[in-house]
Amino acid sequence: MTLTEEIAKRKTFGIIAHPDAGKTTLTEKMLLFGGAIKTAGAVKSNKIDTATKSDWMEIEKQRGISVATSVMGFEYKGQKINLLDTPGHQDFAEDTYRTLTAVDSVIMVIDCVKGVEIQTEKLMEVCRMRKTPVICFINKLDREGRDPYDLLDEVESKLNIQVRPLSWPISMGKSFKGVYNLYEKQLNLFTPSQRKLSDDRIIIEDLSSEILDDRIGTNLADQLREDVALIDGVYPEFDPKEYLEGSVAPVFFGSAVNNFGIKEMLDTFIKIAPGPKSRQTEQREVVPTEDQFSGFIFKIHANMDPKHRNRIAFLRICSGKFTRNKPYNHVRGTKPLRFSNVTSFMAQDKEIIEEAFPGDIVGLYDTGNLKIGDSITDGENLTFKGIPSFSPEIFREVVNKDAMKTKQLDKGLQQLMEEGVAQLFTFEIGSRKVVGTVGQLQFEVIKFRLKNEYNATADFVPMNLYKACWITSNDKKKLDEFIRSKQRHIAKDKDGKLVFMAESKAWLQMVKDNFPEIEFHYTSEL
Ligand code: G4P
Question: Where is the Tr-type G domain (predicted)?
Answer without folding.
Answer: 8-277
